[in-house]
Amino acid sequence: MKRSVLAFVSALAFALCHAMFSPASGECSVTWNAVSEDFKAAVENRREETKAEPESEMVEIEYGGKIISVDIADLILMAGEDGGQKVELGDPEKYAEQYENAVRYGEGRLHANAEAEAEAEAEFEGGSDPAENNLYGQGPNVREITEREYEEERRARQWADIVEDLNLREIDEKALALVKEFHEAKGTVPPSTGVSGSVVVAYSSYTPKIVCRPMYVTDVILQPGENVTGLHPGDPVRWTFAPSVSGSGVSLQVHVLIKPLMADISTNLIVNTDRRTYQLDLMSSATDFMPSVLFSYPADSLKEWDVFLADRKKERESNAALASGYTISPEDLHLEYEIRGKDSLRWKPIRVWDDEVKTYIQFKRGSMRQSVEAPVLVVFEHKKEVLVNYRAGVDMYIVDRVFDKAALIVGTGSRQDRVVITRLKRGI
């Protein structure tokens, strides 16, 4: 401290002397510039001498095939090309000299470790000088370790655990490869254009990357009737997520409005709903963005067919139960019907009757399943063909009324086939 003060005063005095005894006034500016530089140097020296040196925590690492001792504060954990993590030095030049003189990893290291273990064992068994004993808490000559030594040992063990966690197993590498393949979206359905220029993404075929822009809003539109149960962003600080809705009732749609606060950042977003989970990758661009994004659901189309086929099966079973459970007095049945049409038609009825309420048209067993197209039933009213309600049972049509004349029709124009059914009076 005294040296810095003396240097400071000497520099100032030297500069003043030059200013006072300078022979030419033109040299005044040069002299004062020298005074300024000397003053700055003196102040900087004073600051450096009074600055407290921070404590460093040194650890040994394998770097470039060699073992070097570095400050843990100079280490940086980064993502490697294989998807794992690797260790890099923040300032490699700081350890350049040590790296040049370091021993290659594995060379002479096993011998040095063996010597250290033998020495420690000898100290433990023979009882060496307590001042030189380095075994903490063991042997007859034990010395108490300092807090700094304990902290250094704890840091070394912690670093060893970190390095061990960075090593991926073979099964982990395979899992990571599958994730990469899914994110790269190989062989998937490409996006398409939707309503008002929206980008339509096929759900679950890959993880879509949605491009956003600061000061602009990107609208992610969910399926109508879908309710959000949870929203989990990776970066809730530099991104904003606001809810919105459109429509009402069964057509109500939930919107997730996304806006980044700055450009050149990225994160991910998971949206949970009562139907599915959306996984989205978000990135912010200074120039480009997607105004709106919605999804198509290929799996739902198959589900609609499953529902349709299930409803048809249920209807056929209901009609079959109705036909099999049909009971009525023979006196109430009207059996007199005339059936005119080509006998070669598979779907030509074999019997028609009514019970004064409904009309039953019976076909040959299995004929309807073998026919390419089921015939359409029309009823003649005032010289016009009118469609009526009927249900298709097992090899049977059940008409919800009684008619005087009707026709079963397949095809159109000159290729049309038809069978005419006429109700006759009793006794004819």
Number of helices: 8
Q: What is the molecular shape?
A: elongated
In total, the number of strands is: 23
- Poorly predicted runs of 5 or more residues: 1-29, 108-112, 127-141
State the major sheet: 6 strands, mixed
Helix percent reads: 25-40%
Question: Kindly state the mean pLDDT as a whole number?
Answer: 76
* Proportion in β-strands: 25-35%
What distance separates the N and C termini?
136 Å
Structural class: alpha+beta
Question: Compute the gyration radius: what is it?
Answer: 45 Å
- For the biggest β-sheet, the strand order reads 5-6-14-8-11-10
Describe the protein in words.
By secondary structure, this protein is an alpha+beta fold. It is built from eight helices and 23 strands. The chain has helices spanning 2-20, 28-50, 96-101, 109-126, 147-165, 170-184, 298-324, 367-370; strands at 58-63, 66-71, 75-79, 85-89, 192-193, 199-202, 209-212, 218-221, 228-233, 239-246, 253-260, 266-273, 277-284, 292-296, 337-340, 351-354, 359-362, 376-381, 384-387, 390-393, 396-399, 405-410, 417-423. The strands form six sheets. The protein has a six-stranded mixed beta sheet with strand order 5-6-14-8-11-10, with no helix packed on it. The chain has a five-stranded antiparallel beta sheet with strand order 15-23-22-18-19, with no helix packed on it. A four-stranded mixed beta sheet has the order 7-13-12-9, with no helix packed on it. Strand 5 (192-193) and strand 6 form a beta hairpin. It is elongated, with a radius of gyration of 45 Å. The N and C termini lie far apart (136 Å). Mean pLDDT is 76; it is low at 1-29, 108-112 and 127-141.
